[in-house]
Amino acid sequence: MSVFMTADALLAHWQGHRRLTRRVIDAFPAEQLFTFSIGGMRPFGDLAREFLSMTMPMVNGLVSGEWKSFALAAHDSKDAVLAQWDKDTALLDAAWPKIAPAKFAEQMVAFGEYPGTGYSLLLYVIDNEIHHRGQGYVYLRALGIAPPAFYER
């Protein structure tokens, strides 16, 4: 079996997306992050809290095999979200090497309800962030703010 992507390459890819998402969060005016929405969609601050509620619980579950419930992060200010984002970035870098290589291909049920392999569960978290970051781009443009270049990760 050949390896398409190493674990370290996946982490670097994810951290690139996280850097971009952080810049999107930072581009929002503080007073709009948790209030601005279009068409009944959730404000981007709520989406950022969702990202925070998924990242480390998923990685910690892969490391330990213990799937502690993930609750929506309670941060209610832009500064608090960015501070937690930065903290989680360091925690992600520290926890990642502790994921046993076999865990990436292992079938499991995360949080008692999400079946998949370790890598498919991680890709879901990454894809969810990318998907909702696009919503943040739409919001920023609607607010008259140029979003960060998507290709600068």
Could you walk me through the main structural features you see in this protein, from its secondary elements to its overall organization?
The protein has 153 residues and is mainly alpha-helical. It has one domain: dinb family like domain (Four Helix Bundle (Hemerythrin (Met), subunit A), Up-down Bundle). The protein has 5 helices and 2 strands. The protein has helices spanning 7-27, 30-33, 44-64, 78-95, 118-142; strands spanning 107-110, 114-117. A two-stranded antiparallel sheet has the order 1-2. Helix 1 (7-27) packs antiparallel against helix 4 (78-95), helix 3 (44-64) runs parallel beside helix 4 (78-95) and helix 3 (44-64) runs antiparallel to helix 5 (118-142). The longest helix has 25 residues, at 118-142. The mean pLDDT is 94.
CATH overall fold name = Four Helix Bundle (Hemerythrin (Met), subunit A)
Helix share, percent: 55-70%
CATH superfamily: dinb family like domain
Largest sheet: 2 strands, antiparallel
Just give the CATH class. Answer: Mainly Alpha
